[in-house]
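lol ok so funny story. i was supposed to be doing the assay writeup but got distracted and ended up predicting the structure for this chain instead. priorities right. anyway since i did it might as well share w the group, maybe its usefull for someone
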Amino acid sequence: MGGALSALLDGLDPFCGPVGLFRLFGANSIIACGDAGWGDEIAFGVKVTISLALATVPVGLVLGFLIALAAQSQDRLLRMAAGIYTTIFRGLPELLTLFIVYYGAQILVQSVLSSFGVEERIEINAFVAGMIALAVVFSSYSSEVLLSAFRAIPRGQYEAGDALGLRRHRTMRLIVLPQLIRIALPGLTNLWLILLKDTSYVSVVGLSDILRQTGIAARVSKEAFFFYFIACLLYLILAMISSFGLGFVERWAKRSGVSR
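and the output, tada:
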């Protein structure tokens, strides 16, 4: 069963499958799949980039939603904490945030273990560190988008829920959230495209994404322009596919809003 599934996935591989993109360059080209070229390595980098972006979005959205709720809370300390969070992580360069998470988390864990007498060296997984760092940055920007969407929803919507006898969490789920998603979707679409580009930062901590794999290929083959051009094409293809898919979702959300 596992062998059949693996064969099916290999056949559907858009890069190294039977009709894959890299097959167009010929079996003997430097971007061919297999031992002859760098196609397999670059295809793996694309999968890592997409996986990292997809893993980051739900974490960043949940954090951003909680921060947006805190920013409009009646509690002054919550509002202040949300303001400090967004100011810091929107102000810091993404690369610096990644370094803080990757190296800082290692130092923190090492210090905690040392206090218990454990001297074993700990290394944080690059994928997890990259996901946390990008999620933190994504949440700081998405919280502002969601906060603007919250403020665009009339106060009467909440009062209507109260009048219907709905508890506040049901009002949020049934009345506010559908409108919130529709209003915030254009802004979140832009943030997703920015996130796709920001995944390239993780190459500096050793994660095998598109930029790292093409960079290694460029150094070894001495064909820097060719491989970095391939990297540009791959990022543009991902951006175009994302724009098409998210544009469809936006149109669906608008039609859904009108039907209500």
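The mean pLDDT is 83. The domain at 38-250 is CATH 1.10.3720.10 (MetI-like fold).
back to the writeup now i swear
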